[in-house]
Design brief:
Elements lengths: L19 H9 L3 H8 L3 H8 L7 E6 L4 E6 L4 E7 L2 E6 L2 E5 L4 H13 L6 E8 L7 H4 L6 E7 L5 H6 L9 E4 L6 H8 L2 H5 L2 E4 L4 E6 L3 E10 H13 L5 E10 L2 H8 L5 E5 L3 E6 L1
Parallel strand pairs: 1-6, 6-7, 7-8, 8-9, 11-12
Antiparallel strand pairs: 1-2, 2-3, 3-4, 4-5, 9-10, 10-11, 12-14, 13-14
Helix pairs in contact: 9-10
């Protein structure tokens, strides 16, 4: 009670009694994971945080084979979600929270979804990595057109890649990197015929050791240490079955085939012409 007015009861100050500018300033000082936790407290907190500019520019999401998931903002800090019997734990820096009966996948995907659904989000890079059957859960979090410059994907479910890529805004996505090789022409065509792929400036298939650079809309360049007959056959088939690309230039330290071999492969169809020297091979549609 106030000493000057014994009948007056002084109520404690609540955070929403503060000016809006002060509340925003407090929330802006929080790190990304603390903001996640506040979003779970109330709808009002969630609205306030969604109005703030995200505090991170890169995000990597790893679904691991040891019943754990890592969520990484700007390369650090790492949030680790782990199955522990019928429960799970969330570890962030020196803090660990055990959740009785919690599903570590559901909790991790929920945090990923909250991060990606911020209307002000503009990422320099997003990495999605999965070596397990859970990779199909990723798309459930990616349900809006995302403004991202670079995306890195690793999944053994190649059919999921086209569905995931369509979520990104074409025209803003400049660099696409695949950590798993599309092993068939059909899978590769599903990917490269997407508008997001056609407008990207750089493509990279890491497990092939290949960097593919797209230029001027319908040409692409491939850099690789070595090319063999099988590589050329795949490229021939790809060029003949895609309407988007008209030519490609291969640059390598070594070509593991003879001129008669390459002539037989590329001139078996009169739709292609080629020129070759010691380090470059150019294939064009006629």
């Amino acid at each position: 009670m106030s000493p000057n007015n014994p009948d007056h009861i002084q109520m404690p100050l609540r955070i929403f009694d503060l000016p809006v500018e002060m509340i925003n300033k407090i929330f802006e000082e929080l790190d990304t994971f603390s903001r996640f936790n506040l979003q779970k407290v109330s709808k009002t907190f969630r609205i306030i945080i969604d109005r703030l500019k995200p505090s991170f520019k890169t995000l990597d999401f790893y679904i691991n084979t040891d019943d754990s998931i890592n969520l990484i903002f700007d390369k650090f800090p790492v949030v680790t979600y782990r199955r522990e019997g019928n429960s799970c734990s969330v570890v962030y820096e020196n803090h660990k929270k055990s959740i009785i009966g919690g599903d570590y996948i559901e909790i991790a995907l929920g945090d990923l979804g909250r991060a990606l659904k911020n209307p002000k989000l503009q990422l320099e890079r997003l990495g999605l990595f999965s070596d397990t059957e859970y990779s199909n859960f990723l798309k459930n979090c990616l349900n809006s057109q995302l403004h991202i410059k670079k995306v890195v994907l690793k999944t053994h479910k190649i059919d999921e890649i086209p569905r995931i890529l369509t979520i990104f805004q074409h025209g803003t996505l400049e660099y696409i990197e695949f950590r798993t090789e599309p092993k068939t022409r059909k899978n590769l065509l599903k990917i490269v015929d997407l508008e997001q792929m056609k407008r990207a400036r750089n493509l990279k298939f890491l497990e092939l050791g290949v960097k593919i650079r797209v230029s001027n809309g319908n040409r692409f360049k491939i850099y690789k240490k070595e090319f063999d007959v099988e590589d050329i056959v795949r490229l021939r088939d790809f060029l003949l079955t895609t309407a988007h690309f008209k030519s490609c230039r291969l640059t390598a330290r070594q070509f593991n085939f003879t001129f008669p071999q390459i002539e037989r492969i590329l001139r078996s169809d009169k739709c292609l012409i080629f020129t070759i020297n010691r380090t470059q091979l150019i294939i064009e549609k006629v």
